[in-house]
UniProtKB/TrEMBL annotation:
CDD domains per the UniProt record, alphabetical: REC_hyHK_CKI1_RcsC-like (cd17546)
Biological processes annotated in GO: phosphorelay signal transduction system
PANTHER family referenced in this protein's UniProt entry, alphabetically: TWO-COMPONENT RESPONSE REGULATOR, TWO-COMPONENT RESPONSE REGULATOR ARR22
Protein name: Response regulatory domain-containing protein
Domain Response regulatory: 7-128
Keyword rRNA processing attributed: no
Keywords: Phosphoprotein
Residues modified as 4-aspartylphosphate: D63
InterPro entries per record: CheY-like_superfamily, Sig_transdc_resp-reg_receiver, ST_Response_Regulator
Length: 130
């Protein structure tokens, strides 16, 4: 798949983390949409018509701690809509219980912050997007 056609939803409340992730994603030719909390992520996914399939996004990156709705709850709600899009948690909380909480919520993978070119390459390959 051509990386320029890969659409990612980035769910992150901290501007500095969005700046870093945006730079890495755009450098890889990935199209990125950003939201600042889990509730906005759920809304965007719902509006994309993703129920029962993969929808408009090829990949979702989500943080853990955010205002309004955290990444765990957003992941649960997105999965409850029947969305199969891979969800990757990107968090500085990376102890085994933190990782397991995301996997239990429905995330497919976890990577510690910050998102780097190398981590992105591995993730894209893992989900057949590279």
């Amino acid at each position: 798949m051509d990386r320029r056609r890969i659409r990612v939803l980035l769910v992150e409340d901290e501007e500095i983390h969005r700046v870093v992730a945006r730079a890495v994603l755009r450098a890889a030719g990935v199209e990125v949409e950003e939201v600042e909390n889990g509730a906005e992520a759920v809304r965007r996914v719902r509006e994309s018509g993703a129920g029962g399939g993969s929808g408009a996004y090829n990949l979702i990156f989500t943080d853990k701690q955010m205002p309004v709705m955290d990444g765990h709850e957003a992941t649960r709600q997105i999965r409850a809509m029947g969305v199969a899009t891979p969800i990757v948690a990107v968090s500085s909380d990376s102890l085994p219980p933190d990782v397991q909480a995301f996997i239990t919520a429905g995330a497919n993978d976890f990577t510690p912050k910050p998102l780097t070119k190398e981590k992105l390459g591995h993730i894209l390959a893992k989900f057949g997007l590279a």
